[in-house]
Write a structure and sequence with these properties.
Layout (H helix, E strand, L loop, with lengths): L1 H28 L7 H7 L4 E2 L16 E2 L1 H6 L10 E2 L3
Length: 89
């Protein structure tokens, strides 16, 4: 009886953890795509940079950009000067 209980408990834990891991992985893949720079700058004043090592080609900016590869890739259309910083201000 104890052996059966231990097997069922182990199976339940493995099954529960496998479903929980899928939910976490699915949450990481959802990235917001903004309609334009005005909308993006409401959430990220300095824009969005692809990496922390990119340099702005457009001149001096007021704010430091938020760094996120996934967010930049989702809003790549908003990077007019192709310097890997979308909607810099």
């Amino acid at each position: 009886m104890k052996k059966l209980f231990a097997i069922l408990l182990s199976f339940g834990l493995i099954l529960g953890l496998s479903f929980g891991a899928n939910d976490v992985a699915g949450a990481k893949t959802k990235v917001k795509t903004y309609k334009n720079c005005t909308e993006l700058n409401k959430d990220y004043k300095g824009g969005v940079a692809r990496t922390s090592s990119v340099k702005n080609k457009g001149g001096k900016t007021k704010y430091k950009p938020y760094v996120s590869k996934a967010l930049y890739d989702a809003n790549k259309k908003s990077d007019r000067d192709k310097d890997l910083i979308a909607c810099e201000k």
